[in-house]
Design goal:
The chain is built from 9 helices and no strands. With 223 residues, the protein is mostly helical. The chain is globular, with a radius of gyration of 20 Å. The mean pLDDT is 84.
């Protein structure tokens, strides 16, 4: 039968920016490790380049790329809205701003893994594995928590306790968790929680980029 969707434009837009942010995060995950393997870093650092400017350059490159993708996505969904007469939801603008910080967290996460990885292939596999783990864990945790308490078996009760404890750690290290918290704040109309999600995303990005610079300094530019 027919199904009424409250946000027919917002959901596809969220999927688009998620895939774009993940792809740019993957590109960031190979940014440093690939150049170190190829030996181009040694040549680059003969000039007036330091670790901080190099890492920030890689970060800004991917962020600007996301803005280009975001602009084309907005044009696409605007045309789709005009053709189908499906309007944008009231919280669309809030999710639009939030998507920029999702991309920022994903890119910083990829750069951090790239700086820490010894080989290019290891950085790629690690990034993909962690992102899949974060997505699957979020889905499993949401499913288990949605089960009524009276229907829980002993095994499910212990599973819920374990997932809750692991979720506390995941909420800090997963770049997706910051966006999910922002989405919940937008759906609830909680401006304070929304701003807190943005600030925490900026802190997360800053910490990972700072850690990438430190690791990059210690590892050096040689293969």
């Amino acid at each position: 039968g027919l199904e009424a969707l409250p946000n027919p434009i917002t959901s596809p837009f969220y999927l688009t920016v998620f895939l774009a942010a993940t792809y740019l995060g993957l590109c960031s995950a190979i940014a440093i490790s690939r150049e170190r393997e190829q030996g181009t870093l040694e040549v680059l650092f003969y000039g007036p380049v330091d670790s901080l400017s190099y890492v920030l350059g890689k970060y800004l490159q991917q962020v600007l790329t996301f803005f280009v993708v975001l602009a084309f996505s907005l044009v696409n969904f605007f045309l789709l809205s005009q053709l189908t007469n499906l309007g944008f939801s009231g919280n669309f603008f809030g999710l639009l701003i939030l998507s920029i910080f999702l991309a920022s967290c994903m890119i910083a996460f990829g750069i951090f893994l790239s700086a820490a990885a010894k080989r290019n292939i290891f950085a790629v596999v690690l990034f993909i594995s962690l992102v899949l783990f974060f997505v699957i864990f979020w889905g499993a945790h949401s499913l288990i928590m949605a089960l009524p308490g009276k229907n829980l078996t002993t095994l499910l009760i212990y599973t819920r306790l374990i997932l809750d404890n692991v979720n506390i750690l995941i909420q800090w290290i997963s770049p997706l968790a910051y966006f999910v918290r922002g989405m919940v704040a937008v759906s609830q109309g909680n401006i304070g929680q929304y701003l807190l999600s943005i600030v925490s995303s900026l802190i997360y990005t800053t910490l990972l980029l700072g850690a990438a610079v430190i690791i990059f300094d210690r590892r050096g530019v040689k293969r």
